[in-house]
Amino acid sequence: MRIAIIDTSTTRAAIISDGLREAGLDDIVVIDGAGGLVAALEAAAPEVILINLENPSRDVLEEFFTVSRTLARPIAMFVDQSDSESTAAAVDAGVSAYIVDGLAKHRIKPVIDLAVRRFQAFSRLQAELHEAKSALADRTTIDRAKAILMKRRSIDEPAAYGLLRGQAMRSNRRIAEIADAIITSDALMGDL
Amino acid sequence: MALDKVRIGFLPLVDAALPILAREQGFAEAEGLEIIPVRDKTWATVRDRLLYGHSDAAHLVAPLAIATALGRGRPAEPIAVPFVLGLNGNAITLSLPLADAVLDDSVRGEDGLADPVLLGARLKTVALARAAAGRPLRFGVVHRYSSHNYMLRYWLAAVGIRPDEDVEIVTNSPSFAADALATGEIDGICVGEPWNSVAVDRGVGRIALVTAQIWRRGVEKVLAMRTATLGADPDRARRLVRALHAAAAHFVDPATRDASAAILARPEYLDAPVDPIARAISDRVRLTQGADPIHVPDFMFQYREAANFPWRSQAAWLYAQMIRWDGIPYSAEAAEIAQGVFRPDIYRAALAGSGAPLPNASSKLEGSIDGAAIGAGSTQGRLFLGRDPFFDHRAFDPDDIPGYLAASV
Question: N or C: which end of chain A has fewer CB within 10 A?
């Protein structure tokens, strides 16, 4: 069963194709948007196409599926009408799929379910990456604010951190927000 | 009191204005609703979000609502259209090389727009020569199931150019229209505003025709809901119809133009330049780069003459075009499903007791008024219907789709 993956994120496409390979499905074609999506699809003649829900090429693809004479059989949207739960889970995860009409349901479902899990894993990964990035940014801000306090009040680092922390607790704000305010005011006030 | 949330999917187009203005100008709030706009890049995504509950309603190309109910290309899903978001507002823009070949004073009317018959004859010569040379002209439309596709095909076929045989018709995203014209990927496109005007302002295309010249009262975007979603809370659907109707009255008031254009231009809505949006709202069209915009009466038609009323005959016309261009057989059962998508009953229930004119009938002979406006029967308010002809002066009788199609070949 040949599976084509079309995704605006090459990382996510790689994560999905790895997952499919691990599950023993190794007839996989990853198609990137650059250079003739339709031609690549025609050449690959897949039975299942996985595509991210928000891919900007979807209207073009659906047109192609409707008029295509080169793909062996018409391609129908999604798994099966009777399996709307699985389809809804896919949409929630951001996956869309096109299946060659008549392909047995028990062969498709594991592919879709796996794609859904991989999409979700990718989203979690992104969220964690985002958190890590903002944590790093917070630490940089706090370090700069500490340096300002140490210099202007001639105190050591633990004391400077203590000031920031105390102010954050009293005003019910995050330490990074207090630090940001100190940096801003230092930039405005200069040596006054 | 807490507001009921209604998530509405949309594509960045000027005719997404009514749900956006209903939110921004307080019409939704007045009905106890909070509209949450959900923007996407493709109609396929808008449709999927609607079907799988990421949105409660959607700004949708009318034929796609019918195609979804009929199960074209996917399992069928009952869809209800209680409100039409507008008529027309689209144009046909040609690439500079094609415009140079076919657009000159001999095919232009006094206003500067081309005459559809004269331009058609000129275009036919070029199209046939290109087809004979193995390089057929290629036109873009925004979706297979869009009024743009059906308007373009209607015009081409009526002037003797066979779509899919003499010229190619492909799908292009609205916001990439200018790019596709600039690179020569397509020779022309039928698309909604502001994307024609963006192509003109970038100097990569010229507007030849507006779709109002092809069908003066052509149905365009609709508010689509899953029938199940509508049925689960009919009161919310009625309030939404009232909010959108109030937004439509606001939208067509010339005094609101600049404010509406500024709202629509915002990054979270159309994310497009404000000037072409303001032009579209006020029915002004700049045909070529640097030219003064001309006034095109009824370019966009969002409110007057009960323009928001979902006539079953509009759905019937779209179904007839679907049969014609998908090459599927006519079926009385499918025709009934298609017409049943448009829900004048919900529109009437929502606006009963307001000042809005409510037509007596749910269906009419489309394209039959070619002279002065005529009075139409109404159960509430006074209703006049203005000129609504097709450019080839053929009327459409929704009760005789097979007869209409037999004469269309």
Answer: C
